[in-house]
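Intended use. Records like the one below are meant for learning the mapping from a protein sequence to its folded structure. Do not use them to infer anything beyond what is encoded.
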Amino acid sequence: MSDCHDGCNGSRREFLSGTLKLAGGAVVTVIGASALASSSSSPTRAPRPGGGEYDWDEHLWAYLVDTTKCIGCGSCARACKAENDVPEGFFRTWIERYVVGTEDSHVDSPNGGMDGFPPVQVGFVANKSFFVPKICNHCRATPCTQVCPVGASYRTKDGAVLVDAESCIGCGYCVQACPYGSRFIHPATHTASKCTWCYHRITKGLKPACVTVCPTQARQFGDLKKDGDPVRAVVEHDRVQILQGHLLTEPQCYYTHLDKEVR
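Structure written out for the chain above:
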């Protein structure tokens, strides 16, 4: 903990940001290569939450989405925004609508799906339509932590990928590196922001807000270290998919019944 407050943090950010602008390419290349050479499952630093009552060595969290159950109601996105004070125009979780035909497809997410989905007209014969919730995938081999020049993006021992806002300089490298589009620079704090799986809740035995409010249980959250956990059972025994598996990021957000059109 430092005695230096807003003024000092601002000066440090300005200095480091200026340095990165001069040699940004070199920094990303060197850090990325170094991180890729390390173990993909090795967590970096993180403050122990819950005042020592929560033991992160006992948990390994995972997220599961059943796309056949999502009705596009937007309850999850609204709950996330309220729980985490997400600024207007930005989303930590959102829903995409896919309208698919033989010759073409249409994808949209009006206002992140928060207000539901109005009817849409497409210029092709549609064969099917469905909704797909999206969040940060909390990857084991996460690109965002690899490119962060100050170690502000990190993976906890229980599998969550978080951002230390006190260390973040707002360079945006992690935003560009995320292949899932799940990060943004907060307009007020000028630091990276993203889904945390509601870390302040799960370390107290609660579910993420989006999971809690889902009326169809399309979203589920579980512990891969816990015997009898429903999410663990699905991941271990059923056919699950991940987004952009060819990138080898090892996402910890799993999907069932994921269509090939989803990206």
